[in-house]
Design goal:
Length: about 240
Amino acid sequence: MAKKVPKVPAKDAKRSRSTLLFVLVGAAAFVAAAALIAVSLSGGSSSKSPSPSEPLTGVGDALSVFGGIPQHGITVGNPKAPVTIVEYADLQCPYCAHFATDELPGVVQEDVRTGKAKIEYRGLAFIGPDSLNGLRTAFAAGEQGKLWQFVDILFANQGAENSGWLSDSLLRRVGEAVPGLDVDKMFADRGGARVTALVQSASASAQTAGVNSTPTLFVGPTGGTLTQVSSATASAVEQAVAAAS
């Protein structure tokens, strides 16, 4: 179980990020893969996900940002793009939500939509069980080429850490907001071997790369060596893409 440390002041929220400690444990969900245990500097987000009677936030933005861009599993962008961006994130991390809503749209517009780069979402589930439930569902949406809209809407409606906000009810509502996504299939697929393999792969990749906080981004030539980006900002990512081109 994750141990929380004191909250950071609100004025520092955008500059802080959830930190985590990697440990190898045996777990059925990971089939002996590495699990991630979080130590969150934020103490959790103070936001609340919408009630069933409230409209979802950010649906139009998500559909606009990613509309018309090819998606294949965890990847958005031209599969042959010369530069690859890798994002490590947890759906419950408030700083990942900030990156998704405030910084990522610029990266997509400048680098992905233009064909300069593609982005891989290597989701992690270290904050708690809610993270894993949401991650598996997001990966299942990716099996239909809809991961990025799904994840973006979830970040826009993020609730407090481990409060139960990533419920099946919310996940279904978000899925229904993504045009063309077969929600029943998404729920059926999230417990399958393909999704389990994606969870394991992202966890193992994060450990190999030495990731110790989220969001963490790497950029480099496709098929070549990726380098960690100095900060989770659009300007830093765009500079890294330019350098890798």
